[in-house]
Write a structure and sequence with these properties.
Number of domains of chain A: 1
Helix content of chain B: 40-55%
Strand order of the largest sheet of chain B: 4-3-2-1-5
Order of helices and strands of chain A: EHEHEE
Structural class of chain A: alpha+beta
CATH class of chain A: Alpha Beta
Strand order of the largest sheet of chain A: 1-2-4-3
CATH topology of chain A: Translation Initiation Factor IF3
Shape of chain A: globular
Oligomer: heterodimer
Structural class of chain B: alpha/beta
Number of strands of chain B: 5
Shape of chain B: globular
Distance between the termini of chain A: 23 Å
Radius of gyration of chain A: 11 Å
Largest sheet of chain B: 5 strands, parallel
Number of helices of chain A: 2
Largest interface: A-B, 16 and 16 residues
Distance between the termini of chain B: 27 Å
Radius of gyration of chain B: 15 Å
Chain lengths: 79, 140
């Protein structure tokens, strides 16, 4: 499997709900289809909210990676 | 993106910062999922939306108590949370979110359209609000 490169990283650590999701939505809106965006979040709500929004908006959640004290969400703009 | 779940209608009565914050989180969540949101500002919520009033200290609901007040102050001091008026502004840019001032509350508080913050879209009666309420109605 080929490694999927990240085009843009949003460091939203320290932002409270719904800051990280809002940052992701803003970035997705401004990017081209196919762009891979990675959000770093320390907000617990992101664990449910980011996957829920990505599914609802019909984008692709490539992976969710737990780091020390935060989570990385990698999302590809699909449409 | 809209799966036809209907409008989220919020009758916003309370004017304390905790309730306004909780309400705007619901608003932005619904807007992110493509749902239309209609907010009717009544009584003390309308007072909070007077021009120049948004970011003032509106206090907390009585149930907060001293411990709750400390917890809210800690969250604000951390800098991680955004003011509810900023979150509402984001929600309006994100989706179809309308903020209406209740006409009766306008009379009650002696307000004119020009007395309100630009986040308020118009002045509306309860009948127009209820006519547009084709989904859930939440009272906060």
């Amino acid at each position: 499997m080929t490694e999927i490169a990240t085009d843009q990283v949003i460091d939203a650590r320290g932002m409270a709900c719904p800051g990280p999701l809002m940052s992701l939505i803003g970035a997705i809106r401004q990017s081209q289809v196919g762009t891979v965006i990675e959000v770093w979040s320390s907000d617990q709500g992101s664990a449910t909210d980011i996957p829920a929004w990505v599914a609802k908006a019909h984008h692709d959640l490539i992976e969710v990676v737990e780091e020390d004290g935060f989570t990385r969400f990698r999302v590809r703009k699909a449409r | 993106m809209d799966d036809g779940e209907g409008t989220l209608s919020i009758a916003l009565f309370s004017g304390t910062d905790d309730k306004l914050n909780a309400a705007t989180l619901l608003v932005v969540g619904a807007a992110a999922l493509g749902r239309k949101v209609d907010i009717l500002l009544q009584y003390w919520a309308l007072d909070a939306f007077r021009a120049g009033n948004l970011t003032k200290d509106h206090g907390l609901a009585p149930e907060a108590g001293p411990d709750g007040a400390v917890a809210v102050r800690r969250l604000l001091a951390s800098g991680g949370g955004q003011h509810w008026s900023t979150v509402l502004d984001q929600a309006k840019q994100l989706g179809e979110v309308h903020v209406h001032a209740c006409s009766l509350s306008m009379d009650l508080l002696g307000l004119d359209r020009s007395d309100l913050d630009p986040l308020v879209d118009d002045v509306e009666g309860v009948t127009a609000f209820m006519l547009a309420a084709d989904g859930q109605l939440v009272f906060i």
